[in-house]
Amino acid sequence: MEDDDDLAAPLFAAIAGDEGGFAVLWRALHPALIRYLRVMVGDAAEDVASETWLQACRDLPRFQGGTTAFRAWLFRIARNRAIDERRRLGRRPEEPTAAVAEDTIGWRAPDAASQAIEGADTAWALTVIASLPPDQAEAVMLRAVAGLSVAACAQVLGKRPGAIRVATMRGLRRLAADPRVRARGSVGWLPDIVGEMRPEGV
User: Fold this and answer.
1) Contact between residue 35 and residue 147 where contact means Cβ atoms under 8 Å apart
2) 40 and 93 in contact (C-beta within 8 Å)?
């Protein structure tokens, strides 16, 4: 995930109407967005992501703030579109069962075998996270995968920062204790999430 400082110039350019700047934002944030939406809406993630980016593109000229605010703004749009999708279909958040598309995993996988392994690991990890209580799953995805701060996560979810810290900690503890995680060992980026399980990291 690119540092927000690296996205400052592309964001400024995108707000001014530069397509290249918007493309940089898309490449940097789309993988995390898809992973988040896989937990929220399962197989509908790609469609909801498209709706999210379309709204972001339409509303970007009116956006005010820096890259950290933009990241929170984008995920708030995604969450609202995901809630709309769930209401439309009358369903709860579902476990992501479809294979994660190659371009949602990373931009420089060394070879096809590595891509296949990482794709399987990513889909498996998202399924494990989706099995958490919904508030914990969202908090873990937004904090550890999307890279949002506690304050930004609180804005996206409409909760107090303390509630975000508690939900994240409980989710990470559940992941660390999950027999599937213990049995699987090092899998994709999931151990990195579990490795953040300490008060100062939440």
Assistant:
1) no
2) yes
Give percent above pLDDT 70 in the chain.
Answer: 74
Three-class SS of residue 108? coil
- Of 189, 137, 124, 188, which Cα lies nearest the Cα of 167? 137
Q: Where are the domains of the chain?
A: 4-89, 112-201
* Residue where the block lists tokens 């896989």: 38
Domain 4-89, what fold?
Rna Polymerase Sigma Factor; Chain: A (1.10.1740)
Length of the chain: 202
- Torsion angle of alpha carbons 201, 134, 81, 98, nearest 10°? 100
pLDDT tens across 96-112, in order?
544 333 333 333 333 43
Phi/psi for 129 (5° steps) reads: -65, -40
Q: What φ, ψ does residue 187 adopt, rounded to 5°?
A: -135, 110
Single-letter amino acid code for the residue at 140: V
